[in-house]
Amino acid sequence: MNFDYAFILSTLPAFLNAVGVTLQVGFIAIGTSLLVALINATILVFRTPYLQRLVGLYVELARNTPLLIQLFFVYFALPALGIKVSGFAAAIITMTFLGGAYLTEVLRAGIDAVPLAQLESGRSIGLSHGQLLRYVILPQAGILGLPSLFANFIFLLKETTVVSAVAVPEILYTTKSYIALYYKTY
Amino acid sequence: MAERNPAGVPVLNGIDLQVKTGEVIVILGPSGCGKSTLLRCLNGLEVAHSGSLNFAGRELLDKGTDWRKVRQQIGMVFQSYHLFPHMNVLDNLLLGPLKVQKRDRREARDQAEALLARVGLSDKRDAFPRQLSGGQQQRIAIVRPLCMNPHVMLFDEVTAALDPEMVKEVLEVIQGLARDGMTLLIVTHEMAFARAVADRIVFMDGGRILEQNPPGIFFTNPQTARAQQFLEKFSYVAALPQTTQTKELELL
């Protein structure tokens, strides 16, 4: 096996950039997903009428359709409706859509595991809904849900490979570009 | 006041109870008679579907009632303590005063520490609930609402989950509150305690109040057959010496 070190070295800056893009997409998506999940979890905990149904529908839709299809929908179908987004934006939107649903389920499971008595205990000292969530429920749900939360973070980071399909120059896209350009893999 | 369970069966029916400031009410009755539900209705953890609930001149069953305000004035202690397991003792005690009442941290902390000293747990202020015994946790759980300076305290079978040695330490705290003249509503199965501490016994069965009498009358001469039958199960109570009420505790 002969490595073409000069070639590998010449691609290094592009790959470093690709790692940066991958991490960027991944971490932004994790952050926005978590935000979406927090909002959804709040709706579910307090059984907000109608919105609760909507969250259920969203979770089913997002988890039961392939990420690639979701991505194509955002990137190719939305422009037909007059909403044009860049590849990077499409990547973030889609990953948030998917990740938000998964993390909603993680938080919901964690919150379900907090005994109802804790809620009553908090209410009995006059905490508002928001305070109950912030000081009583989420800290406990977070600890209970920490393992699956991180499992899903890792899952989201790995799923960034899919966004290569809409020309976001992450690691897989960069690799494929070099293979196509030089017909060399090493 | 009345309340129904999810199946539509009335849990409480025709409850007519008036409590004066400083009065100590002990609610007795067999399991499932609605004692706990009655207490929970008083601070809005359950909402009575009809009737009237008056507190300090306000009608609480009105739609506009801000239960968060009411709950600061009506403290509640639960059977299984329900302290917040992820917070240490002091944080448990300060959550209400700081976040709900927005009080000054130093002042609230001073009060919390004074109350902790009163229940003999000053050295536990940095401990987490899981490091404490049941009796210690329950004493903390009593101090938690006390830190909000309530007018009324509700006790829902607070010694039912404790072993006998710990029962005493918790009852002594409640007794101290009674002596201080705080208004208390206590659900318990500790008959000797009920007799010692109560100004009035409320006896319930099947979601109704069957009898309300001072303990002297209730324990020696119950007015209803049901109460008589109930008390026979605790026959040792009748054998207690008949002393004048001292609010002192004589545990058997």
Give a description of the structure.
The complex is a heterodimer of chains A (186) and B (252). Chain A has 186 residues and is mostly helical. Chain A contains 7 helices and no strands. Chain A has helices at residues 5-45, 51-63, 67-77, 87-113, 116-124, 129-159, 171-182. The longest helix of chain A has 41 residues, at 5-45. The mean pLDDT of chain A is 89. Chain B has a single domain, classed as Rossmann fold. Helices cover 36% and strands 16% of the residues of chain B. Chain B is built from 9 helices and 10 strands. In chain B, helix 3 (89-100) runs parallel beside helix 5.
- Low-pLDDT stretches of chain A are none
Tell me, briefly, the overall form of chain A. elongated
Order of helices and strands of chain A: HHHHHHH
Radius of gyration of chain A: 21 Å
Could you tell me the mean pLDDT of chain B?
Answer: 88
Oligomer category: heterodimer
Most extensive chain-chain interface: A-B, 18 and 25 residues
Apparent shape of chain B: globular
How many domains, in number, for the residues of chain A?
A: 1
Largest sheet of chain B: 6 strands, mixed
Measured distance between first and last alpha carbons of chain A: 9 Å
* Structural class by sheet pairing and helices of chain A: mainly alpha
CATH fold-type name of chain A: MetI-like fold
Q: What name goes with the CATH superfamily of chain B?
A: P-loop containing nucleotide triphosphate hydrolases
The CATH architecture designation of chain A is Orthogonal Bundle
Q: Helicity level of chain A, as a percent range?
A: over 70%
Order of helices and strands of chain B: EEEHEEHEHHHEHEHEEHH
The overall average pLDDT of chain A, rounded, is 89
